[in-house]
Automatic annotation (TrEMBL):
Pfam families: PRAI. GO terms for molecular function: phosphoribosylanthranilate isomerase activity. It catalyses: N-(5-phospho-beta-D-ribosyl)anthranilate = 1-(2-carboxyphenylamino)-1-deoxy-D-ribulose 5-phosphate. It comes from the Bacteria. This is N-(5'-phosphoribosyl)anthranilate isomerase. Its EC number is 5.3.1.24. Pathway: Amino-acid biosynthesis; L-tryptophan biosynthesis; L-tryptophan from chorismate: step 3/5. It is an enzyme of class 5 (isomerase).
Length: 219
């Protein structure tokens, strides 16, 4: 396959400062994620995310990330932040995820039984999902940990766009893309100096490596 006609989408996640959002847009991010997961060190209040949303450049999406948040919290975020995509990392079911009138992606924790299922079962469990995100965490643990999983475990034959996440950084993203050909990649810790604080040079190198993989001719 010739990858030069394909552009891997880039989502940078876990922002807490409007200046970092501006820089990420300038560097070429397609989507910016705001984390509302209760236990996350990157968690922001809806008002903070709303302020950062105003720092977004045109044609860059705002994504709101949740992990078993109460329905009222999700509603409040949707109302205040107006995200174009929701990302669910907990045990939410399809009815919950689709109930906000905003497209959603469901994170599939690669440390759980869900990851072992046939893709048809994953689709049946989340028929309304716009896509899936394969991440390294297991039951009871959070994403955003910087841990990598074995990419060969991604179920073959997923019919919807999928994103790859979990411990990605400028040093491994080229191999990750060539090895899995994801629709998009999602990174949090790999572009930070500390949780929630983004590092401009790490973001720049990450984008550069994604573009290098996109231009790579596959055998
Ligand atoms: O970023 C967080 O704090 C977070 C909290 C709870 C669930 C998911 C979270 N982040 C997402 O986890 C993956 C992997 O992140 P990392 O690159 O390994 O740090 C990614 O999808 C983040 O958006």
């Amino acid at each position: 396959m010739n990858k030069t006609l394909f552009r891997t989408r880039i989502k940078f996640c876990g922002f807490t400062r409007p200046g970092d959002v501006r820089l990420a847009c300038e560097l070429g991010a397609d989507a910016i994620g705001f984390v509302f997961a209760p236990e996350s060190p990157r968690r922001v209040a809806p008002e903070e995310a709303r302020a950062m949303r105003h720092a977004l450049a045109p044609l860059v999406d705002a994504v709101a990330l949740f992990m078993d948040n109460p329905v009222d919290e999700v509603r409040e975020v949707v109302k205040q932040v107006r995200p174009s995509l929701l990302q669910f990392h907990g045990s939410e079911d399809d009815a919950f995820c689709r109930g906000f009138g905003v497209p959603y992606v469901k994170a599939i924790p690669m440390g759980t039984e869900l990851a072992e299922q046939h893709p048809a079962n994953i689709h049946m469990r989340y028929p309304s999902a716009a896509g899936f995100l394969f991440d390294s965490h297991s039951v009871g643990t959070q994403g955003g940990s910087g841990e990598v999983f074995d990419w060969s475990r991604i179920p073959a034959g997923v019919q919807k766009p999928f994103m790859l996440a979990g411990g990605l950084h400028a040093g491994n993203i080229f191999d990750a893309i060539i090895g899995t050909l994801p629709w998009g990649v999602d990174v949090s810790s790999g572009i930070e100096s500390e949780p929630g604080l983004k590092d401009g040079e790490k973001m720049r190198r990450f984008v550069e490596e994604v573009r290098r993989a996109d231009c790579h001719q596959l055998e």
